[in-house]
Input
Amino acid sequence: MRANKKEIYHAAIYLRLSRDDEGKKESDSIHNQRELLKSYIESHPDIKLYGEYSDDGYTGTNFDRPGFQKMMDLVQKNVIDCIIVKDLSRLGRNYIETGRYIDQIFPMLGVRFISINDNYDSASESNEADEIIIPFKNLINDAYCRDISMKVRSQLDTKRKNGKFVGSFAAYGYKKDPNDVNKLIVDDKAAEVVKMIFNLRLEGYSPGRIADKLNNMGIASPLQYKRSSGTNFVCSYLSSDNPRWHHGNVKNVLTNEIYIGVLAQGKKRKVNYKVKKLQPVDEKDWIKVEGVVEPIISKEVFDRVQYIDQFDMRTAPEKETVNLFSGLVKCGDCGQNMIRHVTHTGRKDHIYYECSSTKYGQCSYHRINEKTLEKAVREIVQNQIELVLDFDRLGRAMDHQPLEARRVKVIDEQIANLDKEEARYRGLKKKLFENYHDGIIDQEDYDELTVSYNNKISQIEETRISLTEKKENILSEPLLPSDWISEVRNFGSVQKLTRKALVMMVDQIIIHSRYEIEVKFHYGDEIMALAELLGKKASCQKGVIAV
Output
């Protein structure tokens, strides 16, 4: 469909340069597009220039561009009736939408459309070749855009896999290195707040209570902090000029692995090269690289925070933190949580823990007084701390090699005992065959005992392989992580049990029906091994006492 010929056309020249065009031919620059288009108008007396409209840095995959939309507003008002571009790719690279403008929208609005390099003028005599060539060129431009999108995505993924940061804004606690925009460095001021958030969580504060505390202290929220640092950061879902800390951004800090040195990227992707909308990517498909960012939080602290987040720990309205044992006390019979109860008798409160299944008749009736529980657990935890500190002092006072040699010696002794045990069972198998051959035992007994001996020998071989691997890893893997030991060192002598000391040391506190307390410790097996190496009583690790 061709436009009716007029004597004079009021033309708009449209210029576009996308980010994909940067670094390409100089002829694609805004300046050179302008010179070409003005030169064309000067050579055509029937066309008068009304105005120039441009979009610098905008993609051609859609028509949501400010310069283009402003021009189309004037077209709708019949101010402009001619649009001139350098080539079809400047108008757009979306095959369907570009074709719709050329074949439907422009003719309907009475607009003469000219693409200089494509030798296309909608007001010229009909050319059947145009009916094939123009759609084909639009298709080529669309394919070019898709190809560029795939290449850009591939390049970004390569950077991510190499540990290069490709985001627009650094996570709270970090900033871009002024000498390398693809590298993050610690922002010391914000990093202190990150440390405070993790510490408050270990002390029993909920994310909401942490947010309240930070706001009361006058600490700027991540968005406020970015703005105060001069970063042009815009967040579409926050309209307030003074955004505050809230449950969500505290939770984001507490779950972000970047604070232990893991750079995770590629969490969202565009639906396709034509649609800007981002959609979340499954965590298994994120690109994670360790060791390229300086950690702010130790892995031990981070892991303990994730561990306690598994529990249902609600804070009483009148309190800032959860109760000391919240989420940690379990019933030894049914495995359910023990619930904290408070009863009032006169002026005195009685606080105790009771199995949550008792009232439904699904578990035996037993309870324990909170003070009794706290005293018993404090003594057990103190013994555990002293054992770890003994190891710490030993390690700092002497070379680790003697201790490693002792660990190797223990494993060698275990392997030697396994060798003796295996030789004994092989001897029994030989004797068994002789008894069968001599008719002392029948076929059924022979088969049954042979299977039993073979199973014992297989178990011994599996245990030997496991111990051998453990022996090989002794020199490369410390018995206890140094970061965790540093945290324990800060506890010192536990005169009063704190929430932080409890969650850093203990996984579960199990109350058995006979009022027996069993404490399962974090790194319990490793500490048991320490007890053996240091000549301590290993029973202190299990933490079982009668109350």
DSSP finds 17 helices and 18 strands in the chain.
